[in-house]
Amino acid sequence: MTQRAPLDLSRRERQIMEIIYQQGQATAAEVLGRLPDPPGYSAVRAMLRLLEEKGYLRHDQQGPRYVYLPTLAREKARRSALKQMLQTFFDGSTEAAVAALLDLSRPKLSAPELERLSRMIDEAKKEGR
Question: Is domain 6-70 annotated with CATH 2.60.40.10?
C-alpha cells in the first residue's frame, strides 16, 4: 500500500474521499447514495478498492459489508494536499498562494474574516514565520 500525492486523485475519487471524510466512514451503498450523477454500484466498489490500493482508505468488515475509513486524519490530508499544491502551482511561495486565494475571495470576504486573517499574519510575524 503506497501513499500517493493528493493530486493523484481523479474528480470522482476526490468526491468519494469528501463523502467519507464528512461521514467519518461509509459503505459503498452510502457513497453511491451521496455521489452526484452516480455511476453504478460496481463502479463505486471498484473506485473504493482503488483508493484502498493507493493508500487513502482502509476497510473494516461489518457483517457482510465493508465499511471504508480514511487512513489519514482530515487535517493531515489537508496539510499534505496544500503542501503539494503550494509546490506544484506556486513554486513553494506561500505569498503567491495567499494572493491567489485573496483574489478569488475578494467579493466574499467579510470585515470579520479580513480581521481574523490580519491577526493570523500578525501572529506569524511575532513567531518569526
Answer: no
